[in-house]
């Protein structure tokens, strides 16, 4: 299987997974309050299926990221194919494929996963700090409380600007736990 076809196969897998996650996240029929929290209701063949409120935004976000990766891989396959055609049309033999060792391949995969995770959590943290409707978002608090002190201080100052009259969330409170630091 040639390299562009591999790109297209992986892009198709990302598209399929992204679309499934995206449509599952957005085919909700409503939400209800249960046990002091909210759950989204997703229609199921045997009745109704309940989904926790935190899962759906993550599914929508990961679905969008997977679709974006699929588009990027398709563009890469098209660029690679165009370059190969150009070298053949200029009567030059196509460039020999570069052999990459197993260690470099694993390092690149690990680096790509680390960048993807970093971007995903970074976006989720920034969205919590800059756009949250409440300072008590569980995922945002968990991410913010685990960041280095300089980023946490900046995030807490943004939250304090927006929610000055609220009790600060975990990681942004002073020693008493009732005031902003």
How many DSSP E strands?
3
Helix and strand content put the structural class at mainly alpha
Query: What is the C-alpha radius of gyration, as a whole number of Å?
Result: 23 Å
| Percentage beta strand | 5-15%
What report would you give on this structure?
With 181 residues, the protein is mainly alpha-helical. The chain has 5 helices and 3 strands. Strands 1-2-3 form a 3-stranded antiparallel beta sheet, with no helix packed on it. Helix 1 runs antiparallel to helix 2. The chain is elongated, with a radius of gyration of 23 Å. The model has no long low-confidence stretch (mean pLDDT 75).
Keywords for this entry:
181 residues, mainly alpha, three-stranded antiparallel beta sheet
Task: Write a concise synopsis of the structure shown.
With 181 residues, this protein is mainly alpha-helical.
Provide the fold topology.
Blueprint: H1 3-26, E1 30-34, E2 37-44, E3 47-52, H2 55-89, H3 102-131, H4 138-145, H5 149-162
Antiparallel strand pairs: 1-2, 2-3
Helix pairs in contact: 1-2, 3-4
